[in-house]
Design goal:
CATH class: Alpha Beta
Number of strands: 7
Bound molecules: flavin mononucleotide
Distance between the termini: 12 Å
CATH topology: Rossmann fold
CATH superfamily: Flavodoxin domain
Radius of gyration: 17 Å
Number of helices: 7
Oligomer: single chain
């Protein structure tokens, strides 16, 4: 099993990093020989679309004859996804959705003719489905009975990754991090992990 482990938080003591690391740990328990590829978007961010990349993506004609090397970063990141049997993403909620470093990654991985096809009925994914675990940390509460803010993170990730064919998303969340002491933080993480039966994924490269 190859796990692509992505993190987005720049914060020392990050809850989303602790959660994504614990998810990876649980997966490796069921697949001891697993290899792990790391992509740290907080400390090694991928570029936002630059002129040549934006030009390449602007039409079918420019995609067919893109400016030289304009798709290299995109291609590298897509191949990283393709090489993974499982993807684990640790992400904060920033202003109700994903942080910009994760959005920049999404802007490289979603590419017409490569990870999705545009049809009159909408985008059709070109990637093989595989489990994607998303460990979210939020300062406030966005899910459950006590939610007091909208959630544009889970629906957004489901829509964009789903349009590439990555439809099997599992969301785990540590919420109200602004109010957690270290003991409560561990309990909240364990609670989030308990929502997934990781044994289901033991030795199963793809769903
Ligand atoms: C720029 C920014 C925007 C944020 N927006 C939200 C938000 O919309 N909702 C929320 O619940 N928390 C928000 N937070 C708080 C973070 O989600 C919270 O601190 C979380 O624990 C960060 O993840 P980390 O612990 O992995 O660093 C925001 C934090 C920052 C820095």
């Amino acid at each position: 099993m190859n796990i692509l482990h992505i993190d987005c938080s720049p914060r020392p003591g990050s809850h989303s990093r602790a959660l994504s690391a614990a998810i990876v740990e649980r997966l490796v328990e069921g697949a001891p020989g697993a290899s792990i590829s790391r992509r740290d978007l907080a400390f090694h961010p991928v570029p936002h679309p630059w002129p040549d990349y934006a030009t390449a993506l602007s039409s079918p004609a420019t995609l067919a004859a893109p400016p030289p090397r304009s798709l290299d970063v995109s291609e590298f990141l897509i191949q990283e996804v393709e090489a993974a049997d499982v993807i684990v993403i640790g992400t904060p909620m920033n202003n109700l959705t994903v942080p910009s470093v994760l959005k920049a990654w999404i802007d490289q991985v979603l590419r017409a003719g490569r990870t999705f096809t545009s049809t009159p009925a909408g985008k059709v994914g070109m990637l093989q489905d595989r489990p994607v675990f998303v460990g979210i940390a939020s300062g406030g509460i966005f899910a459950g009975d006590r939610a007091n803010q909208p959630d544009f993170l889970r629906p957004y990730l489901s829509a964009v990754l789903g349009s590439t064919g990555l439809k099997t998303l599992h969301f785990l969340a540590v919420q109200a991090t602004a109010f957690l002491d270290p003991v409560q933080a561990v309990a909240a993480r364990e609670q989030a992990l308990s929502t997934i039966d990781f044994k289901r994924f033991a030795g199963v490269p793809c769903l």
